[in-house]
Amino acid sequence: MPAQSLVFDGVTKRFGGTAVVDDVSVAIEGGSLVALVGTSGSGKSTLLKTINRLVEPDAGRVLIDGSDVAEGPAPLLRRGIGYVFQGIGLFPHLTVAENVAIGARIAGRDADVAALLDLVALPRAMADRYPSALSGGQQQRVGIARALAPKPGVLLLDEAFGALDPVTRDTLGQEIRALHERLGLTTILVTHDMAEALLLATRVLVMQAGRIVGDASPRDLANGGGGEAAQSLMAVPRHQAERLRALEHGG
Ligand SMILES: Nc1ncnc2c1ncn2[C@@H]1O[C@H](COP(=O)(O)OP(=O)(O)OP(=O)(O)O)[C@@H](O)[C@H]1O
């Protein structure tokens, strides 16, 4: 099955009179790995949640493969959309295997837990452990396995690696990219971290005050493109790279 396209068509969401997402229109090709970046409060999570209807827009539509997500029951929609967020919310009284299979079980189906653990590089022997006996990175892998269990076409990651140490974060990021490619997903990744966006995504959208103010490839961004807001976010990774280079040269 070809990867699913995603369209935001004039999407607006207001909270208390403020447009937190303000008339966003953008088309995302199936198979893209899009990073949504921007300063805190710019509306990234709110926009992301209009895809799986955790947020219902006040105006506009979201289309997956041309179908309006507002049509039909939200639980059915969510079965086709993997969702991973920071502090993944595993059920503490369920084992790893039960956590991974919960979505499928609610839908009246079985999940191939062993295959899913393999997919996210967790030893099968962990299936019977409880979340409290796992590291943060391992818990996040369980969350990813759970999100992938219903074989979604779209994967949403909301600061999914936020609470992890940089090495685990980097490893999981690379693994998500590999899974994205292998499973033919359309993936949207919300992140504060411009370096992460540049290294993982095929396209970077920059949000500011509810609007998309930058839309560029990582290569364009690295070469100074994407507009002013994007370049101000580029300052951090650029500065870090310069300082590392200076260290290498004994500075
Ligand atoms: N349910 C809500 N009720 C009222 N205001 C909300 C609600 N959800 C979000 N907001 C406000 O909307 C704005 C955008 O929030 P959002 O979480 O989308 O931003 P963000 O870019 O993802 O931020 P961060 O990077 O800090 O997570 C913020 O000012 C937030 O306080």
TrEMBL record:
<dbReference type="InterPro" id="IPR050093">
    <property type="entry name" value="ABC_SmlMolc_Importer"/>
</dbReference>
<dbReference type="GO" id="GO:0005524">
    <property type="term" value="F:ATP binding"/>
</dbReference>
<dbReference type="InterPro" id="IPR017871">
    <property type="entry name" value="ABC_transporter-like_CS"/>
</dbReference>
<protein>
    <submittedName>
        <fullName>Osmoprotectant transport system ATP-binding protein</fullName>
    </submittedName>
</protein>
<dbReference type="GO" id="GO:0016887">
    <property type="term" value="F:ATP hydrolysis activity"/>
</dbReference>
<keyword id="KW-0813">Transport</keyword>
<dbReference type="GO" id="GO:0015697">
    <property type="term" value="P:quaternary ammonium group transport"/>
</dbReference>
<dbReference type="InterPro" id="IPR027417">
    <property type="entry name" value="P-loop_NTPase"/>
</dbReference>
<dbReference type="InterPro" id="IPR003439">
    <property type="entry name" value="ABC_transporter-like_ATP-bd"/>
</dbReference>
<keyword id="KW-0067">ATP-binding</keyword>
<keyword id="KW-0547">Nucleotide-binding</keyword>
<dbReference type="Pfam" id="PF00005">
    <property type="entry name" value="ABC_tran"/>
</dbReference>
<dbReference type="InterPro" id="IPR003593">
    <property type="entry name" value="AAA+_ATPase"/>
</dbReference>
<feature type="domain" description="ABC transporter">
    <location>
        <begin position="6"/>
        <end position="234"/>
    </location>
</feature>
